[in-house]
Amino acid sequence: MSVTSVLTKERSNKKDIKKENTKRDISIFVESASKVIAPLWPISTFAARHPWMGLEKQTFDQVADRLKNTRDVDIYPSASMILSAKNKGEINETFVKQGLQRWLDSNLQTFNIPRDVAERFCHAALKLEPIPSNLLSSIELKKKVEELRKQNADSINHSSMQPISSQIENQDGEKLINILDYHIIKWCKLYLDDSQAGWEMPHREDGFYRSWHRLVCYDPALSKSQRESLKSWAEEADSALENALKALNISDAEIQTYLEAHLLSLPGWAGMMLWRSKQSNEENNLLTEYLAVRISLEWALIHPYLPFRNNQLEKRESIPSLLAAWIHWGSLSLEEWTHMSGAKQQEYLLFAAKFDGKLCRKLWLESWEQTHAEQLRQKIISNQSSNSEKETTLAQFVFCIDVRSEPFRRQLEKEGPFETIGMAGFFGIPIATNELGSAHSHPSLPIMNKPLHKIMESTEENELISFQQRKQAVHSLSYTFKTMKQNLLANLLLPELSGPWLSLQMVARSFVPKSADRLINNLRKNWLRKPKTNLVLHHVHQTEEGIPIGFSESDKVNYARQALKMMGITDNFSPLVVICGHGSQSINNPYASSLDCGACGGASGGFNARVLATLCNLPEVRKELSFEGIAIPAETVFVAAEHNTTVDELEWIYVPELSKSAQVAFERIEVILPRVSHQANAERLTKLPHFQSKHKKPKSAAYQLAEDWSVIRPEWGLAGNAAFIIGQRALTEGSDLEGRVFLHNYNWQKDGNGELLDTIISGPGTVAQWINLEYYASTVAPHYYGSGNKATQTVTAGIGVMQGNASDLLTGLPWQSVMQSDNEAYHSPIRLLIVIQAPKEYVERLLKNNAAFQQKVKNGWLRLASVSPEGHWENW
What we know:
- By secondary structure, this protein is of the alpha/beta class.
- Helices cover 49% and strands 12% of the residues.
- The radius of gyration is 30 Å and the shape is globular.
């Protein structure tokens, strides 16, 4: 080989190494930047999404500052929300005063300001009254501000990296970032479409960046020069992203911050890309591709305006507002201000900047949370003396920890010797469910976990074939309708064919919704005639999507044992044990899955309940459990039911042959269930706005909400959630917790090593925290973290909703899920309080061994309290 050949090969190898290093460096930047957003899964499997899950290493307050400075998003409750809560008695002002004194003790020593002066200013600021506009615009104030500027007493600055396109306007006065967002939304909809569009995006199988790169040169929405510039752009996403950042003159030190700013511009679409990137190896580079498309397009849009140097955006706390704050809140006259030295004036301005509106609302929020904790403490303490011995338990009901189960459980316990137990609604069974005749499975477990087994429904072969044929007929009719609607010639005929039927359906659903819905459902059921099914629980040597179908013999025992321990019933079994999943019922509701079981990934929990009940009835499982000291009596039978949270009814979904004593319990339950349902509905419906509190038939009213397609709030869902109690039911039994508390059974005496408590905190505790922060974010920042008004939403690409036809993919809950009216919130935006019933050393061990949980508590993402065996409450 010649010297020239060797040198050429070495150069080629160096290029390959350099290219690989660049790819690695870019992926590291993207991975780090992705922490500012959260994965967003399709709305059909809507489950709670903690919007700041990647930022928990920072304190809640630090994240609040960051979002305010970079996106002008405020994550503390508004002044109007706080004042409304105060007027309703939800905030004890004593806690506000105590919080202020603690803050002054910690911070005042850094300022040369008399304490009485500082206190007067702070107390006035905490009234949350806005500074009068006539004061801010007064000539005298402007003169003083001008003097301050001449004395170089400049304003307080916060610098934050923002996309360059957010600082440039085109000739029509529109910011280029708005144009950029429009383009990105268009390309994301095309790529992510889930069979909603008639025509698929060409070259979609090549990946997002490559398909975009091949098509963008034909985009008529771009100018000819912009298309030409992108035509010769890099063919690989990593190289394209690196080139775009260099062309925009973004330094290495600024890259991560710049990528974060772009991810936060459309956190919904970016979140969907992040979620997709974690679902398969084929798309694991999808977020990098998204950023490559976005920043390449940004470069093409702003290229005529380059070079542009000031990409550091300064947010200024204006001197006029700080000085006006001292005049209005500090009772300081302009004459007194004039006689101050320049150094003292600067000191006062710095103090006003520190004790700003955000800090005031932070103190109010903490007091709101303290008030709620104190009210809950009082309920629990007063309940300790009222607990009395009950007669022998006739039946044990295991409900999901969901806050909507609490009122139903309370009404059920009033009706007889029934024990209710709380556990996460997937019941510890990590499965994907596959209903009879369905080609798709659903991961029926918390969204942060992956299923380990697939459980299918089965039936006799001839019945299955017949059922599948009937389902296919329905599917074919739907497919034909969609195809004709999207076909240029066929859609001209479609109105003539479908018009009479659709018109009749529209009139019926509008004027007699209950009758229409029941008629349509009955027609569908009578046509489909789903046969009686069994569950494929026994492991077959076959896998689908990488997971086995059914359980091994050891799996059956392990899941039954684990569930019984988590419930806390390893002895003293009742004749009847009812495993209750839950689901909801509504019509014309894109957010239907948000009302189902969050622990089941946004589906109903009945399937999981049936699986667990069946496992616990298997003779081989009971035999193995008995060897381990868990002896289930022969007379005890496990059955499964589903709690419909919209109409507060219990439906039996699995009832095997019952023993004599179990039959007695079952018949007793059948008698009292209508009364339980009536009472639970009567309590729940009065909380809905515009509902007549003295409605004579609450059940009928509940069905009206569930079956009317014009209803935008069939139920409140988990709105109002505020606490998660981990302890024995005796701690709260009989207490009216107002449907605001997650309840998980736990007996510390059966958990010597603390493993059960750690499992509850890491699993159900995390789900509860995510739910709480989803509702919190959608309430305090609905324009950014919520999803707006249901009535004006557009379902897009089959995966989510937008407002109009070109907005971000909306990530949170709709206005109707958290607001009582236009001006009043229903959900109280306070961070979740976890209460653990256990000795102090159990909680200390938990915090020591579970670093993630300790971090959540320390950084203010949730609150923690404990109740000792003696009944003493302690805040941590």
